[in-house]
Design brief:
Structural class: mainly alpha
Strand content: under 5%
Low-confidence stretches: 1-14
Order of helices and strands: HHHH
Number of helices: 4
Distance between the termini: 58 Å
Helix content: 55-70%
Mean pLDDT: 90
Number of strands: 0
Radius of gyration: 19 Å
Number of domains: 1
């Protein structure tokens, strides 16, 4: 019988952070809230665009808007431990979440999230 690995409680990849159960709970709450807020914005915009439909071509414009936004949402929101720092950094940069919502995450994760948001803001400038 082999003994359990000494590293069995760590991630298989050196630069991935481990997330405690408490941090995962906080992350899920923040993630879901941000996603729901963004989806509600999309719904409001889609309703507005639908009310403005006057020509057949306007239907396709609405379809293009919804397809574009669905792809953006699919790319942005990925609840995997290896992606959460990037996801939250992006959401913080876009002002879709606040640092106050992230209370409960470890300082190592907060630092990485802030760093990601800072890089995005520098790239946008």
């Amino acid at each position: 019988m082999s003994s359990p690995s000494v590293t069995s409680n760590t991630y298989p990849y050196q630069n991935e952070r481990t997330w405690t159960n408490s941090e995962r709970t906080t992350a899920r709450r923040v993630f879901d809230a941000a996603l729901n807020r963004e989806l509600h914005e999309i719904m409001q915009k889609a309703r507005q665009k639908a009310e403005e439909i006057k020509e057949p071509a306007d239907v396709w414009e609405l379809e293009r808007y919804l397809t574009r936004r669905r792809k953006e949402i699919d790319r942005k929101y990925e609840f995997r431990s290896s992606q959460l720092t990037r996801v939250f950094g992006t959401l913080l940069f876009e002002h879709r979440i606040t640092e106050e919502e992230l209370v409960g995450l470890g300082e190592d994760k907060l630092k990485a999230i802030r760093s990601c948001a800072k890089v995005l803001s520098e790239d946008a400038a």
